[in-house]
Amino acid sequence: MFQITPYPEWSWSHSRDHLFQECPRRYYYHYYGSHNGWLRDAAPEQQETYRLKQMANLFLVFGDALHQAADMHIRQFQAKNHLFSYSELFTKIRNMMNQAVLESKDIEQWQAAPKKRKMLVEQYYYHQLPKRIVQIIKERMETCLTNLLDSESMREITTDPRVEILEMEKLNTIYVRGEKVYVKLDVLYRIGDRYIISDWKTGQEDESIEEQLYLYAYYLHREAGVPLSQIEIRTEYLLTGECRKTYVTEANLEQVEEKIVSSTAEMKSYLHDPAQNQPLSRLDFEGAANPRSCMYCNYRQLCELKDRTLLDAADEAAPGAEQAG
């Protein structure tokens, strides 16, 4: 049964750690400042922070659209043994992007229902879509969709009759040394005694995702009892068409545990009362090491640190804006 609490429940995830490492102040707004902001009697700043939390930049909206297309494609094949064409999926992705742009132009309607409507960070703060980023997205739509349909995992899922889909876009909860951890796989399937986890990536290659991959294997090995020798993790980089395969050892799983323990300790050092997950003051959460991250931060209007950057052009993409899965 849902209960209203003064502070959010504590949990750990790879995305939470990523946000904390990028900017503790943004982390504060996202997990603490926005808490209970959906309630009608919440303080005005809570409500505002909650609304801002729902925004996304163009790269994230595009990444989500590609993931939805992959999900629809696989489910269509499962249900009807029929595949969408490239043009059908391209139209769906383009429509999702256009809908996000259209909804972003009506701030009042978004403010009334921030969970149900889209708001782009670029439109909200700069009242226009940066031309350079729009062009990048248009180019990536064609490239990423082509590589998605041609990817090793998608071809295998849609042509090998032995494939058994086990999970798609399911949020799972596990416990690592007593800490509640969230894990979400793009798609998990089995062929005989082989378990394949496929992760679609629409952004640039990033070495930091290795920890995320180890966590996927940790979940499958420790929770489902699948031997590590039977687990294969595929990172499908849709920008380049490269499929990178990862095989995990027990030593890697120990790395996962140590990472979660150390990350948790660092996050909890910002808590006034760890038992209640009560944070320190907002001002105790310092800003991003790179001030350019402020340009496309959801919480820019609330944070006095936003003016650390003197960049003139709103169409210059900020590092950290591109974090789509």
From TrEMBL:
Alphabetical UniProt keywords: ATP-binding, DNA damage, DNA repair, DNA-binding, Helicase, Hydrolase, Nucleotide-binding
Superkingdom of source: Bacteria
Domain PD-(D/E)XK endonuclease-like positions: 11-304
Single GO MF annotation: ATP binding
GO biological process: DNA repair
Matches recorded under InterPro entries: PDDEXK-like_dom_sf, PDDEXK_AddAB-type, Restrct_endonuc-II-like
Keyword Hydrolase: yes
Keyword Ribonucleoprotein: no
Pfam family, one: PDDEXK_1
Name of the featured protein: PD-(D/E)XK endonuclease-like domain-containing protein
Organism: Tumebacillus flagellatus
Source lineage: Bacteria, Bacillati, Bacillota, Bacilli, Bacillales
